[in-house]
Specification:
Blueprint lengths: L23 E2 L11 H14 L5 E4 L10 E9 L2 E6 L4 E4 L4 E3 L1 E3 L11 E4 L17 H11 L2 E2 L8 E2 L7 E3 L2 H7 L10 E4 L5 E2 L1 E3 H11 L4 H14 L7 H15 L9 E3 H8 L1
Parallel strand pairs: 7-11, 8-12
Antiparallel strand pairs: 1-13, 2-3, 2-6, 3-4, 4-5, 9-10, 14-15
Helix pairs in contact: 4-5
């Protein structure tokens, strides 16, 4: 039921599948949903070229005039625009640049296949997947949409509008359609499911991976943020020191813990980094 979709970046720790270490999957950008330019352009071109009389659209105000989009019905298609009828019975000729597709919510699951990709994880080594959080509850969908579209004077100076200010330029499916399209409490089979493969587990950090993890994780990974805070405020000698110096300090500390044995490569084990954070 989202009008727009988003991309979510996460960094997470979880127990590893092997008993000898606690696994930290390499930092990855987990795309929960992402719009792609090519499919969007195709959909837009298909929308404009397939418009026909009696189609319902949104009509934007004339450029330079403030206002909201209005629901309208296409009366006729002309070579340079459309003649439309508004809900109050008035008519207007509008150019193509003012016409917008009128969304109908909730979305059909199959309509989101190119824009919404669900990455799911297997349960251990079985063929079952973690799908608890993907369940759709159609009655909850109805209640949420009714709630956010309540009309009233919610914000000073805005007049009467919907509770969620952007949820006023779409049509809501009727209860019968929602009952047919969505399960009562289950995972829609029409979604675009892709298995999330996690074969490569990180057990040690070479410098490039260590640097990427800290640089990318500083925005949304608590562990990376804690590491950077410790480096900047407690360990860094001067402003010219870099993450390479931080890595070298940790690597020297690690070499001391292995009782003089030379490490096989210039890498820091994950367990050592975890102990440092703790």
């Amino acid at each position: 039921m989202a009008l727009l979709h988003m991309q979510v970046d996460i960094c997470y720790m979880r127990p590893g599948r092997r008993q000898q270490y606690t696994g930290l999957p390499s930092y990855r950008k987990k795309n929960i949903a992402f719009p792609q330019e090519l499919p969007e352009v195709k959909q837009l071109m298909n929308f404009w070229t397939s418009l026909s009389p009696n189609d319902i659209v949104n009509v934007e105000p004339v450029p330079g005039v403030l206002g909201q989009a209005h629901r309208a019905r296409i009366i006729s298609v002309q070579h340079d625009g459309f003649r439309v009828e508004y809900g109050n019975g008035s008519f207007e000729f509008v150019t193509v640049d003012r016409i917008r597709q009128r969304v109908q919510l909730p979305w059909r699951p199959e309509d989101l296949r190119e824009n919404f990709i669900v990455l799911r994880r297997r349960i251990g080594r079985t063929e079952q997947h973690l799908e608890k959080d993907l369940r759709v509850r159609r009655n909850m969908l109805k209640r949420i949409l009714v709630f956010v579209t309540q009309r009233g004077n919610w914000r000073p100076g805005h007049g009467e509008e919907t509770l969620h200010m952007y949820y006023d330029a779409f049509d809501m499916r009727d209860d019968h359609d929602i009952d047919v399209i969505f399960p009562e409490d289950a995972v829609p089979t029409q979604l675009n499911f892709q298995d999330l493969h996690e074969e490569d587990h990180v057990t040690e950090f070479p410098f490039p991976l260590f640097q990427d993890w800290l640089v990318e994780g500083k925005f949304n990974c608590d562990v990376a943020q804690a590491m950077l805070h410790t480096w900047i405020h407690d360990l860094r000698g001067n402003d010219s020191d870099t993450l390479r110096d931080f890595f070298d300090q940790l690597f020297d500390d690690y070499k001391i813990t292995i009782l003089g044995d030379a490490p096989p490569s210039e890498t820091i084990p994950l367990l050592f980094v975890a102990a440092f954070v703790r």
